[in-house]
Prior knowledge:
The complex is a heterodimer of chains A (about 230) and B (about 375).
Chain A: H1 2-6, H2 16-21, H3 40-53, H4 58-64, E1 69-70, H5 74-83, E2 87-92, E3 95-100, H6 105-114, E4 120-128, E5 136-144, E6 149-157, E7 162-164, H7 173-184, E8 187-189, H8 219-226
Parallel strand pairs in A: 3-6, 7-8
Antiparallel strand pairs in A: 1-2, 2-3, 4-5, 5-6
Chain B: E1 25-30, E2 42-48, E3 51-58, H1 66-70, H2 75-82, H3 90-105, H4 111-140, H5 144-164, E4 173-174, E5 177-178, H6 186-208, H7 212-218, H8 226-231, H9 237-241, H10 248-251, H11 272-295, E6 315-323, E7 326-334, E8 342-346, H12 348-353, H13 356-360, H14 365-375, H15 379-383
Antiparallel strand pairs in B: 1-2, 2-3, 4-5, 6-7, 7-8
Helix pairs in contact in B: 2-3, 3-4, 4-5, 4-11, 4-14, 5-6, 6-11
Amino acid sequence: MPDETKSPAPPPEGGPKSAAETPVPSGATASSPSPAPPATPPVAAAEKLAAAAAPKPPAPAKPVGPVPVAWESALVAKLKGQFGSGVEALTYLGQNSLQVDRSLIPNILQILRDEEQFDYCVDVTAVHYPKRERQFDVLWILYSFARNERVRVKTQIAEGEHIPSAVSIWPTANWLEREAYDMFGIQFDGHPELKRILLPDGWKGHPLRKDYGIIEQDSEWVQINLGIESGQ
Amino acid sequence: MTDSTSSVSPLDLDESKKTFLDANELILNMGPQHPATHGVLRVILRLDGEKVLGLECVIGYLHRGVEKIAEHRTYTMFNPYVDRMDYVAAVSNGLGYCEAVEKLLNVEAPPRANYIRVILTELNRLASHQLWLGTHALDIGAMTPLFYTFRDREEILKIFEKYCGARLTTHAFRIGGCQYETYEGFEKDVKKFVAFVAPKIDEYEELLTTNRIWVERTKNVGTISAKDCIAYGVTGPVLRASGVKWDIRKAQPYAAYSKFDFEVPTGQNGDTYDRYLVRMAEMRQSLRIIQQAIDGIPEGPIMAKVSKVMKPPVGEIYHSIEAPKGELGYFIVSDGSTQPYRVRVRPPSFVNLQALDLMCRGQLVADVIAVIGTLDIVLGEVDR
């Protein structure tokens, strides 16, 4: 994108700026200070400009790169038939993802495991977008041994909103959800024991949120438990 | 799946709920400073005499906030940090990260770089397995293998040192390929090493495979079924020892792995002994891969065209590789700037450690040590 704005505007378009800078063979600009024969030089200049601009156009074309496209498959058709507009399926760089409405989460995860053979839950994690109304993306990365296929299920939730736990579907979600809770403060309903896993139990704050500074810490906890002024 | 999957209820540590004068149950605290926990792992055991009724892992002692650091570094600057997670297999960590960012940038490393990557990664797998074998055997009481494996592992570290100057946290790869061309005599060194170490693996096996004490201590210890492995997300040699023939190098090949002929060794019983056999077989397969790669290494550039200021287009990617411990994945979100918006590391050790409770129930206290060893965890990766 930035390359597009940087490259010089192609001359034939003749916007007000290019008209002022380059001599154009028209009646209005014929009295411009160029003393040379009026007809040929402007054409040559235009050609020169075009030649200079010619190697540039491929540059803006390249960084456009891959864009997410709709993901079409029997699985998507089935889910869309069942849940309608609550499911959006995309493919980006050859990877499939499902953007799902929050209320559909337990059903869709259950269907993916029971009916579509996604028996291995690779990861459960979250991403924080503080400027969005629904601040968190919660993700499940799933894999199917039978299909040798991966899929990412994503949903958006707001601050303080709860999400059903997937521990009853995949026991491996237990620690992964605890980590998401520890780092982002996401509440998983129905988790057998939702408590911090990497940080100490009494810690305040969720460090992977964007508003948590990189050197920020729970100084009260550090002072009481470590007996030092700062952990830095 | 829920019916047969052994459900593990959270360990009840509330003293007040126990009946007075209940002499059968005992809470034992193991770690975090304990030589057999391979770092700083704390395990709270609930025991009935010597029998384990359940256990709870307390982790996080090595938490450094790697994922947070990533958000404050450029893609290139974060590269050396990943070596510090699984520090005995730093090359694998780097490979996974570089490939994930390359995917996001939509570039591909040149063939020669991919071959160098495969050679170094497989050497690192061998080194990681050797370190595992030495320490695991030491935990169980066999001291000799430690000296043998460390002696031979040294040769791998020497090759790393000659290649990139570092022995452990190598930072061997760059986004787009490799920074360094192989040094003069690299091929000779690697070939010499392969010829040197192949009989040494037989030597390790001679010490242990039919050793009666070793067999008694490992057979039917820490058994986990294939079904439980999948339900608990356990990957790597542990999954394969339970009979699931799944290796990302075969299932979804990356780097140059599709070009090599190798087998995926599996076990049947899913016990500590089978996991030992699987890793021993994997070492031999690694040698096969290294041999083929060094014979077929192509000429050419080692770095793809990557701009110095990396700005991957807005999007997200998940890429995983078969690290020595299991599936190591990176989930990276780009917002189009020079710094990643989010880097999530899916660590194999963290997920595999979760199955410790399930594997230890009903076993003896001494077996807990064997099971921690056989899971092959590195706490730097568990805690990140």
